[in-house]
Write a structure and sequence with these properties.
The complex is a heterodimer of chains A (329) and B (548). Chain A has 329 residues and is mostly helical. Chain A has a domain of 183 residues: MetI-like (MetI-like fold), CATH 1.10.3720. Chain A contains 16 helices and no strands. Chain B is built from 20 helices and 19 strands. Chain B folds into three domains: 102 residues, no CATH class; 117 residues, no CATH class; 165 residues, MetI-like (MetI-like fold). Classes of the chains: A mainly alpha (329), B alpha+beta (548). At the A-B interface, helix 9, helix 10, helix 14 and helix 16 of A face helix 1, helix 12, helix 13, helix 18 and helix 19 of B.
């Protein structure tokens, strides 16, 4: 009885018959539509990436490093031998350096001074700029060549036979020898080192991409796609590329820091650039590693090189994880 | 299987030959050949024309060029009977100066001079004609006068005439591979030298072990040659592997600057450190306290006439001996450090990797991942220095000393090599195990009531370890190569720095020899890795591609 009382009488609403009831025609086009939330690939990548709070911290650290490495040296006009004639200005600990250069901006001297009386702090950032530029340029060149050739290598069987041989042979030519010969022929400049590191450096990336392409190339959905008459280029661009993005980002994440490490290694064994790099700083300061009061000259560039490589690696790895569509759920 | 592996080995060897060819092109053709004299003390002592000819002589010795002097050409003609000795001596003296001509935009001395005697002029024409036809370049250098008026020459400034031609790469490659293995034979010593009967003698009582008091030798079989390069072709002693031979000799490339005249193979394998002296009875009967290894005696013609010490010790020209030293060879040091660190790395990484996979996303996994990131991202130089600093503060010796060996000095190099490879192994093992964890067979095993421990060690690990097993031969053989940074930082007298030293000193013979060594090791370890993988996993087979 109560239920009946709760019912509303339509006529009380004061609406016309047409407003209340109207005929809806069946729409075949709308029936075909599948409603799903809007999906944008790159939007999702950044959403997943920034979901982890640690990434924001690391990204901020990376921004700070880049700021110091690329902007700070513009204002300091670093000259290694600017203070070479300053009496008692060489190999100073921070306290003594700050005392000696009391009138100067103290930021230059917070890490003491080096073998030519230069500021260790300034030297580190000039070195970082060169090392970072080298790493970015080499990684960019190698990634572009490696990815394109690796994709072709994975698709073409004829190319595969040739490239396997090339890979076996080049892989066995000592890398240090190749670099030193090129540096010897050209010069010890920045660009000749880039050339030396990229002339065969793309090969390993191409090989890795090739293997990935071969794995995905023969998956069922690509087989189906091919049966339906999709062109190879379209399969490569639409079916395989999305899979490769996260792989490419992950490779880049290991590539960029590895060039910084490799440059440090090359400087240590005597293959130095003419420009100041982190590796060169570490190499020249090596004798002061255990000398009391001079340790910072050595350990400061080591620490900066380590921080830069770790930050780049972690950012890259997490970006690689985020660019994998399977994490976008 | 065997057929497949043999084919791969052959294929690998061809790649090795091409690799050596590429490296030869890099070091011989592309680098500046003047640079090999950078650290040569003999070169800096020489001046004027002698310095020029010294360069060509050395280039010939190290395989860059074929070099013939005018004198050598005349001597050759005399030997062939084309001219007589008197004709030669009439023609041998060339005029001090010849006019300059322009060839290829450069001012060079013409090979012909109007001041040459008639006999010389005729022979010079023959010389130039003969060699230019073969593609050689003729060079004549005028006398270098200290003073024109007194006709006094600068030191080494005598006029010279010679010809040279670059050795083509293919020829160099073939002659290199043709000379890697040489079998010592009784025709080694020049046939013109009278050294008595050329023969091989087998003895049961090696004269090198003759007791100075009794004059007798204990039982020690040996093969002694006369006319061969080595005196002892086979002998026994108390050092591993107890039986040694000089019958088949390996020459991988002679050093020019790092270790002048010594083959790379010997540089790597000869003992180092303090001399081990013992009472030695020399062939002449002289007994002396010395470190000489009589078994290593090599023939050097006319050596006894040069030095009284040698003639008092040796009764033949087999007088060039090496010495016995107390410590390991370069390869020995690298291998001992390398092999222990490889073993340590696998012992640590396998349980840790399993633990990380089992405790996925828990504390242990996170700590392990942090460590892996540290090792991958931080420059290897940086963490090796860190290990050194930490070890130093713990009181461990931070550098190696060959003359005062103790087991403690091995700790830091071994740890520095092992810890990075632990990270690398852990990374892959964890990845492979986690990939396997979601497989159907694991769920099946779990539903069958197996304990987690059993599932991990017996099922998942077995499958995850297969790709890890593939790398074991490579890491063991890699220990022979040595590690560049570790050995430099801890001053290990190992083989790791040979290549970088050779590159810095432009030591081409060593570079080529080491490339061959590295390439061979890499080919062999790849094949061994495949064999081992097939042995561990019965599903893998290298038999011909037919489906079973």
């Amino acid at each position: 009885m109560n239920e009946q009382a709760n019912l509303i009488d339509i006529s009380d609403l004061g609406l016309s018959e047409e407003e209340l009831f109207s005929h809806v025609a069946s729409d075949t086009l709308a029936a075909e539509k599948i409603t799903a939330p809007r999906y944008s690939y790159w939007h999702s990548v950044f959403r997943v990436f920034f979901r982890k709070k640690i990434n924001i911290v690391i990204l901020a650290l990376l921004a700070l490093i880049i700021l110091f490495a690329f902007i700070y040296p513009m204002f300091t006009n670093y000259d290694r031998f600017a203070h070479v004639l300053t009496e008692g200005g060489k190999h100073l600990s921070p306290e003594k350096a700050l005392e000696l250069h009391a009138g100067d901006n103290p930021i230059h001297w917070i890490l003491g001074s080096g073998g030519a009386g230069e500021s260790t702090f300034d030297a580190i950032w000039v070195g970082s700029r060169i090392s970072l530029s080298l790493a970015f340029v080499c990684a960019l060149i190698n990634m572009v060549i490696g990815t394109v050739l690796g994709a072709v290598w994975g698709f073409s069987k004829k190319f595969d036979i040739v490239m396997q041989e090339v890979y076996n042979i080049i892989g066995n030519v000592p890398y240090i020898l190749l670099i030193s010969v090129i540096v010897m022929i050209l010069s010890a400049s920045f660009w000749s080192l880039v050339f030396a590191l990229t002339i065969t450096g793309w090969l390993a990336i191409a090989y890795f991409i090739r293997t990935q392409v071969i794995i995905i190339r023969d998956r069922e959905y690509n087989l189906a796609s091919r049966c339906l008459g999709t062109s190879t280029l379209r399969i490569a661009m639409k079916n395989i590329m999305p899979f490769m993005v996260s792989i490419i980002v992950t490779i880049a994440a290991t590539e960029i820091p590895s060039y910084i490490s490799y440059e440090v290694f090359l400087s240590y064994i005597g293959l130095t650039m003419s420009d100041i790099s982190l590796g060169k700083l570490i190499g020249t300061a090596q004798p002061s590693m255990f000398t009391p009061g001079m340790q910072l000259e050595f350990w400061a560039p080591v620490a900066i090189a380590s921080i830069i490589t770790i930050v780049l690696y972690v950012v890259g790895q997490n970006l690689g994880d985020a660019s994998d569509p399977r994490t976008h759920m | 299987m065997t057929k497949y592996l043999l084919r791969r080995l052959l294929h690998g060897l061809i790649s090795v030959i091409i690799v050596v060819g590429v490296v030869m092109m890099l070091v011989y053709s592309l680098t500046d050949r003047e640079k090999i004299f950078g650290s040569d003390p003999m070169f800096s002592k020489k001046t004027s024309n002698i310095r020029e000819t010294y360069k060509y002589e050395q280039w010939e010795l190290y395989g860059y060029i074929d070099y013939v002097t005018y004198n050598e050409y005349l001597l050759q003609l005399v030997r062939n009977g084309d001219i007589t000795e008197t004709q030669r001596s009439a023609a041998v003296e060339i005029a001090p100066t010849a006019p300059k001509t322009t060839a290829g935009g450069k001012q060079v001395v013409s090979p012909f001079s109007e001041d040459d005697s008639a006999a010389a002029s005729e022979m010079i024409h023959r010389f130039v004609e003969h060699y230019t036809a073969k593609g050689y370049t003729v060079v004549r250098l005028n006398a270098d006068y200290y003073s024109k008026r007194t006709k006094k020459l600068n030191n080494g400034g005598k006029q010279v005439l010679f010809t040279y031609k670059d050795v083509p790469l293919i020829f160099r490659l073939f002659s290199y591979f043709g000379h890697i293995f040489t079998v010592d034979n009784i025709h080694y010593v020049s046939e013109e030298t009278d050294i008595g009967e050329r023969k091989l003698t087998f003895t049961l009582h090696d004269p090198a072990y003759t007791d100075p008091d009794t004059g007798k030798s204990p039982f020690s079989p040996a093969i002694i040659g006369n006319g061969t390069r080595h005196r002892y072709l086979l002998y026994t002693d108390n050092r591993f592997p107890f039986i040694h031979q000089h019958l088949l000799n390996i020459s991988m490339g002679t050093s020019f600057s790092v270790n002048k005249g010594v083959d790379v193979f010997d540089t790597m394998t000869l003992t180092q450190g303090k001399y081990v002296k013992s009472l030695i009875t020399y062939p002449t009967g002289l007994t002396e306290l010395s470190a000489d290894d009589l078994h290593s005696a090599v023939y050097i013609e006319g050596s006894r006439e040069l030095s009284e010490t040698i003639s008092s010790r040796f009764d033949s020209d087999y007088s060039n001996v090496s010495t016995i030293k107390a410590s390991k060879s370069k390869i020995g040091f690298s291998f001992v450090i390398g092999i222990i660190s490889v073993a340590l790395a696998y012992l640590l990484a396998v349980p840790l990797g399993i633990l990380m996979a089992r405790q996925k996303d828990k504390l242990i996994d996170k700590i392990g991942t942090l460590y892996i990131i540290f090792i991958i991202a931080v420059p290897s130089l940086a963490y090796i220095f860190m290990f050194q600093a930490i070890g130093r503060s713990l009181g461990l010796p931070s550098i190696m000393n060959v003359n005062a060996e103790s087991w403690k000095m091995y700790i830091l190099p071994i740890v520095s090599l092992a810890l990075p490879s632990v990270a690398e192994l852990m990374k892959w093992l964890r990845r492979y195990m986690i990939d396997q964890m979601n497989s159907d067979y694991v769920r099946f095993a779990r539903s069958g009531g197996l304990s987690e421990g059993e599932i991990f060690t017996k099922h998942i690990f077995k499958n995850a370890a297969i790709p890890i097993v593939h790398g074991i031969p490579a890491s063991i053989l890699g220990a022979l190569i040595g590690a560049i940074i570790t050995e430099r930082v801890y001053l290990v007298p190992g083989a790791g720095n040979l290549l970088t030293n050779a590159i810095n000193a432009n030591d081409n013979g060593v570079i080529v020899g080491l490339t061959l060594f590295y390439a061979l090791l890499s080919i062999i370890s790849m094949i061994l890795g495949d064999i081992l993988m097939a042995a561990v996993d019965p599903r893998i087979s290298f038999s011909s591609g037919k489906a079973r």
